[in-house]
Amino acid sequence: MINRMTRVALGSARELAKKPSAWALVARDTITGLRITAHHTLMTVGIAALAALVALYFNPQLADHVRTLSPFASPLPQVAAAQAPRPEIPVEITPKPAVPTAAPAAVVQIAPQSIPAHDKQPAPAASDETNAIGSNPQQKRVTTWLAKRYRVATDATNMLVSAAYLTAKEIKLDPLLILAVVAIESRFNPFAESPVGAQGLMQVMSKVHRDKFEDHGGIKAALNPVANIKVGSLILKDYVKRGGSIEAGLKLYVGAADFESDSGYGSKVLAEYRRLKEVASGKQVPTTTAGRTPQKSPDRAVEEKSEALTEAENSPAAHPA
Description:
By secondary structure, this protein is an all-alpha fold. The chain has 10 helices and 2 strands; from the N terminus they run ααααααββαααα. The chain folds into 2 domains: 2-58; 87-318, Lysozyme (Orthogonal Bundle), CATH 1.10.530.
């Protein structure tokens, strides 16, 4: 009887001795499971964050949309006058009235197939002009498309497009034609400069057109985006007027007036011009073009432009009334 009780007591003691190790095993397994779960969770969150960053990088429009959803984003001003689409700038090119001449200059009008004309509508009030242009739905579509196509920040692209629209309104030239020239000349790089001295967004020969930069502070303003667009647009308008059509004006602009071919420069500008008109009308236009050539290199066409502009500057025809 005593032996049986002794064996029962010893068995109970052994069972009690086993219990702490069992609890330790359960605790260790639990901690290991939590650590593995946390590791997998953090890895999943990291992969998702990386995928979101890649998506925002390759889709600037999505990044702008996410920025507008932020509670810390400042609301953009809304202009009531901007709700109605603003028509394209009339393409009728009139002579400059600055210097009187003996006989009035004839008005040069571009053929309808080159630049479509539109009915004139009253312009917005002077105080709201800048905001109305910046809120134009047509301009917004153009800005978004150009920012994606040439990988330029949306805010910077909006500033350049606004400058082109304001300049086009002042000199009566299609802003989309100005933007097409900017795209082909510099791909929206305001600090571009060719080996022969063409500078800025519209690759203006500042040394040749020194007088046109006097109102903007001198030739150093050639790298000022707004001044470059204004001077380049005035030169383009003058060449289109002298040539009688956009095609002839572009040939003069690239400096190939005395040559049979402009090395395809005019075709590239007109192709981009057509794409911009489709974008402005609301059509879905791809931002990449098959077989698109890179930015114009300093080839023979650029040298021809420099030579032709130098000759034009030294001739009486270079200073039209």
